[in-house]
Amino acid sequence: MRIIEGAGFDAYWKNFSHPQEDETVLSLVREIIAAVRTEGDAAVRRYAAKFDKSSPPIPEVPAGFAAAAWDSLKAGEGELAWALELAAEHIRRFALEQKMQFGDFEYPMGQGLVTGQRVIPVERAAVYAPGGRFPLVSTVLMGLIPALSAGVEEAILASPPGPDGLPDRRILAAAALTGRICGKVPRIFALGGAQAIAALALGTETVPRVDIIAGPGNKYVAAAKRLLYGQVGIDFVAGPTDVLIIAEPADPARSAELVAADMLAQAEHDPDARARALVPRIGEGGPGFAEEIRKALERRLRDLPTRETARASLEAGGLIVIYRDQAEAARIANAIAPEHLELQTRNPESWLPLLKNYGSLFIGPLAAEALGDYSAGINHTLPTSGSARFTGGLSVRHFLKTLTTLRCGPGEAFDAARRAAVLIAGAEGLTAHGESAGLRGPGFGAYLK
User: Fold this and answer.
1) With 390 labelled, which of 127, 333, 360, 415 sits at a CA distance of 20 to 30 A?
2) Catalytic residue among 339, 342, 369, 380, which?
3) Is 428 among the catalytic positions?
4) What is the DSSP letter of 440?
5) 189: exposed, middle or buried (Cβ count in 10 Å: 0-12, 13-18, 19+)
6) For residue 145, what are the domain limits?
7) Domain match, 190 and 309 both
8) Catalytic site residue 77?
């Protein structure tokens, strides 16, 4: 864990080792994609046998298995079932509200020229839910519910098979829940790793080709999504998770505990996860508050079951920056462009106009990032590694297409647009473009007879 002054941040950040693509990973993933492209299911089964816990001969999971998993979960883990139901309902309501922001319209530019847009869902979408050390049950809800709320005709869940040839039973249960709450049952495939992404992007004998793939995964999944983008749509390429907490302590000891708890909530994900905090330089915060946070981290680590992972993360990239003023803190936050940005400050609203780059913003000390991860309704699949500078998180919009339309008829606006097209085509040297527009000038009616 490093503690630095805000004045030294730029030099630190310039030399910070951001995640780099591993050529060994890319080479293997290219091999897998090429094999799936030419061999289909046979290649998928071969790589599943090599990398997954089993290689089912038929990857699609009958819907009854998911329904049975949900019934079993409700009977044996009733409180967890309740929590998933609450989270699913919140995610659905938020996704439907998002969809309301995207609508069809037609806008008349003038006489004879009417522009417009149609917003329609993609036909087939896939969501990948990792099933490694921590099967991400919440990712099933976060991916499938926005897809189904968008109106996708066919939603598919892919998750790695366990020794019994099926995805984790809680993942199956969550898939069944999405079908119940959204009114359309997703198809489920026991597929993992880069071979799953390749099969979904390219299609095989038993795996349908999809239009978009969403959801997080390991470095092989991320590499496959990157390499196959263009042949299939993707949400974005996710890297290691991260959080940045801007904290102004009302009570340094208690505030330090809260900051430390939230930093560890990210650090326990992975040794490559990055937990960072910005604390004030002046007043009661001062350098002493940074030390309070460091001590709180050590105390909380002692009893944390995931302490080895969390400690490795903090030692590799944990950071506390002591800022001079609000402007400096906002500049540093925007440079980091965190996946999760928390405002544990006295007047969080005053920060909002200054903060531009983040995946999700958590406003006020009660707004724990973990609530966004699971149950509040916003999505937890967010841009990482600074990509919040140019994109937002997974939402219903990823499963929608905005299609533009044009209607033309006689009129002044049409004539002006036609003449402008002829002139611009001539300037670009595209003669046929100009002739195409020019033919629709005076006397065009003769072409319609």
Assistant:
1) 127
2) 339
3) no
4) T
5) buried
6) 40-234
7) no
8) no
